[in-house]
Specification:
Elements: E1 3-9, H1 18-31, E2 41-47, E3 60-68, H2 74-96, E4 101-109
Parallel strand pairs: 1-2, 3-4
Antiparallel strand pairs: 1-3
Helix pairs in contact: 1-2
GO molecular function: 5-carboxymethyl-2-hydroxymuconate delta-isomerase activity
Pfam family, one: CHMI
Protein name: 5-carboxymethyl-2-hydroxymuconate isomerase
Length: 126
Amino acid sequence: MPHFIIDYSANLHDRLDFQPLFKALHEYVVSTGYFPLGGVRSRAIRCDDYRVADGREEFAYLNLSLKIGHGRDMTVKQQVAEQVFAILTDWLAPVTDQHYVAVSFELTELDPVLKFNRNNIHPLFK
């Protein structure tokens, strides 16, 4: 953890380069000292079937979900959420300055009893 998951409307596909965003997000969360590099993952999922507002073809959307493990206090979560949203909106500004895009973001803390994982990457970064 953390996991960054982006879903976005297909009409944005040719306008987006996710690697610079992923790099900035990974560097930021690791720099906080609250998240180990070996657990950070990012992915973008193109959505071909969608409708925004009244269905105009030029309307687009991008949603970023950030899932984190349990245990950080609300002050940390709020600070991280605000900075992640700033990174996202700065990266997306060239698109939102010229196109209609609904942008959303949510940070979710996963329940420690109901979250399972196995990761053999962590030892590489210790």
